[in-house]
Amino acid sequence: MKKLLSALIAFTAFINVTAKDRPNILWLTSEDNSYHWIGCYGNKDAKTPNIDRIAAEGIRYRFGYANAPVCAVARFTMITGRYACSMGTQNMRSRYPIPEKFRTYPYYLREAGYYCVNRSKTDYNFKTDDKSHWDESSPRAHWKNRKPGQPFFAVFNTTISHESSLFQKKIDANRKKGLIPEKPSRDPSTAKLPPFMPDTPELREDWAIYMDVITAMDKQIGSWMKELEDAGELENTIIIHYSDHGGVLPRAKRYVYDTGTHVPMIVRVPKKWSHLAPAKSGSVSDRPVSFIDLPPTALSLAGIKPPEHMQGRPFLGDHQKKAEPFVFLFGQRFDSRMTRNVRALTDGKFRYIRNFHPHRHNGILAGYPHGQAGWRSFYALQTAGKTSAEQSSFWNIPQPVEELYDLANDPWEVNNLANDPAQKERLLKMRTYLMLKMGEIRDCGIVPESMYNKLSRDGTIYDYVHDKSFPHAQLLALAAGAGDVKLDLLKRLRRAMKAEHPVARYWGVLGCTIRGKSAKAAMKDIRKLQNDPVPAVQIAANEALVVLGNRKAGVRGLIKLLKETDDDMVALEAMNIAVALDILSDIPKDVWVRAAGIGNYPKRMLEDYPG
């Protein structure tokens, strides 16, 4: 009888929780626009009355961040409440599996009786049926389709402000549709370009056009607000507006700088639900928030305690938690470019960046971003040797291992303070915090992606890295040391090249590459790794041989790999290395074309670098 009574009490409690009056929640998402394009964030050239209204009637977060500076990777974090790099999904448009125990936040909302709608961007960056997470997901999906009295959670996504809005075909199409004027409404000559960009007519024109694009995006936001008002739901609905990451001019999207990660983050909480907000309407919050916090915040607003596996901290609702001292940011493979691995922290006042591949530059030589005339003009001036020291630093090799920026005094992040004695204590604090954070979440980015396909066939990358037998702390320390040429680690790197663990061998040889000809004593050890059973190690060994002076052997090894592999990520990594080393002319055309046929991203490498 006691068991039956307990069950009845529990069931009654569940009914009360799921049936009680709850707020509607609407996320209004734009694409590729940093916070500084928006009027309420201080842009006097902006015409964004609808977003400004949300801020005037809500809470504007000064320090809102995408944890990754590109859409699909950022969206994984938003849908799961997990850092993508803690799951092995930090690489762009990858579809690696994750353990089934990690439920997405719509699952919990639907269990609690919410009608969950997505309109309509998915692209969640892991192996799943994207639409299965929603009651409705399509360009026509709408919260109006819910049952009478049912609370809704909806994500409405406008694509107007995507980086492709500055591609000529899209500019022409948007003008034909009347979304933007035939001539920019702002005078390009008034553009205030960041100091890391050259002053070109193309970049000024892109700036002026994008200001009109932002106005068009704001009108779309306004139309969705009006739908709520017309339906009498505005005062029943909590609205959160954000952009999926930063952008949209060069050195923004795809980069963990402020321009790539700092986004508008604005919350409007109606009077009816004001007890769920931490501040009054019309206020500005200095609390740092990021996408990792959005899933638990959505659940908290609905009165649901977030599950333990979610790594963020709710900043609204019944289950609010104190913010972490720093926002964690990450970047790895974006599009077909596979040669960078960076992690970063910010508290909104300072930014620390750790570069695990400092022997490769930041710039993008070809491909999708070059659809913008501004990007092309930047690259053309750089190759002609006509950029300033600040602008050229973006393309320099090597890149700094560590970067530290004072955002209050250097908002465009051009003055690296990592070697400033006055910042020694801050540098140590942020470096230590970053390494501890990577260890805490067991960052999967220390495993090269060219190993991922094989690992995914045997399980998940998450399971591989989170297994107790995986020596994460030791490998993370090795990866950090490998990139820092100030450390005398050649003996340690040579030992690592003989280690049983393939990830240790990979970082051992990569550390020699980064040290260049000062690591020539390891040449024999490196030659042996050309026949390593793991292709990632072979690729790293071949790269090292070219850098250390044995170009012929390194090229021969890369050609052999490109001829034999059927793994698209192995092919992509080898192709990236060939481009980075500027040895494409040494690769036979038929070998290059053969490798490009293995998958979508190798194919894009062929399109960008025909050979």
Reconstruct the topology from this structure.
Layout: H1 2-19, E1 24-30, H2 49-56, E2 59-65, H3 71-80, H4 105-111, E3 115-119, E4 136-137, E5 152-157, H5 168-177, H6 201-230, E6 237-243, H7 258-261, E7 262-268, E8 283-285, E9 289-290, H8 294-301, E10 327-331, E11 342-346, E12 350-355, H9 373-383, H10 389-392, E13 402-406, H11 424-440, H12 452-458, H13 461-466, H14 472-483, H15 490-497, H16 502-515, H17 523-528, H18 535-548, H19 551-564, H20 568-580, H21 589-596, H22 600-608
Parallel strand pairs: 1-5, 1-6, 2-8, 2-9, 3-4, 3-5
Antiparallel strand pairs: 2-7, 6-7, 10-11, 11-12, 12-13
Molecular structure report:
- There is one protein chain.
- The protein is α/β, with parallel strands linked by helices and 611 residues long.
- The chain has three domains: 22-331, Alkaline Phosphatase, subunit A (3-Layer(aba) Sandwich), CATH 3.40.720.10; 342-429; 448-608, Alpha Horseshoe (Leucine-rich Repeat Variant).
- It contains 22 helices and 13 strands.
- It has helices at residues 2-19, 49-56, 71-80, 105-111, 168-177, 201-230, 258-261, 294-301, 373-383, 389-392, 424-440, 452-458, 461-466, 472-483, 490-497, 502-515, 523-528, 535-548, 551-564, 568-580, 589-596, 600-608; strands spanning 24-30, 59-65, 115-119, 136-137, 152-157, 237-243, 262-268, 283-285, 289-290, 327-331, 342-346, 350-355, 402-406.
- The strands form two sheets. Strands 1, 2, 3, 4, 5, 6, 7, 8 and 9 form a nine-stranded mixed sheet that branches. Strands 10-11-12-13 form a four-stranded antiparallel sheet, with helices on one face.
- β11 (342-346) and β12 form a beta hairpin.
- The chain is globular and about 75 Å long.
- The model is unreliable at 1-19 (pLDDT under 50).
